[in-house]
Specification:
It is built from 13 helices and no strands. With about 375 residues, it is mainly α. It is flat, with a radius of gyration of 22 Å. GO terms for molecular function: oxidoreductase activity.
Length: about 375
Amino acid sequence: MLSQLAAIGILIALFPLAYVLVRGSRDKYRKLVWVTAFLTLDLIMFGSFTRLTDSGLGCPDWPGCYGHSNPHAAVEHIRAAETAMPSGPVTWAKAWIEMIHRYFAMAVGVLIIALMVLAWAKRRQLRQSPWFATGVLVLVCVQGAFGAFTVTLKLQPIIVVMHLLLGMALLAALIWLGSRSDPPRAIAPEAARLRWPVRLSLALLVIQIFLGGWVSTNYAVLACTDFPLCNGQWIPEMDFRHGFTLWRQLGMTADGDYIPHSALVAIHWVHRCFAVVVLGYLGWFGLRARRLEGLSRKANWLLAALALQLATGLSNIVLDWPLVAAVAHNGGAAVLLLLLVRLNYNIGLATRTAAIAAGAPARPADAARAS
């Protein structure tokens, strides 16, 4: 079974690898980085689709499906589980959704292995340490382990959220690696003043992604059914203790009782309130960054992504959690992360360039990019 799964992952990865190889660009390493980052973004969105369709246990073992490499070979087990519980976690459709997610995750892993090999093979030509690419491979292995824990621990909320955060961290690492490989661009020296604001923007977004993942994994999206009020109140009845107990089973308290609705309300309400903080601060940062040369385009995209997040977040409540909007909301968070990582890199480079101009000692890589 493991050899068959590996073969499927390699086969899927051959398509983007072939695309990189046949393209006329000489900088194949850079192109492979960005193709892998794009597919990682797609994988994050498909992972949210898997979670939102309750397909996370479509195949209740790991890495295969009832000991097989595909649901077709496990059809008898799947049909038996579906007959016993038609609306349960195991159905024919959910099994395929779960396994397709695993196939593409393996393909991304294969691409990252190829990326690391290329980084070591061309380390002198690239003029950057291959250890960063090696660290990305370690990160994807840890992410795979949490994917296994997600299934074996039966969708325990903190494990699912960690799986989401590690996926976002993998995307951020690939974006940073791609930014290092891009040719240098002119950035206004004034961008150095945004060094700490952009870092705070990224920190606030990461906290909000955690809170959003906590809402989703606890199925608390519809705990508040109206907006801007929550169940007709500005401050509804909430149970923060049970809502934010991290180590517990899905739908249960740490004591093993069913989690009260007031705990789900607390989870939803905190995410909603913190969203106001994040939207306000990132909006202010985007408006300030768009005035600067070299940052204006990314800042405009940031503001557009913020507007999309607001629209999809509200539609989840007002339109009773439509699947397309929910997946788009998860994808929007990943896009915001992508943009803020890029802005962090660009502003950090501008800061180091300004320091070099002022006479501070420079790292060789920074001097090369600044030239």
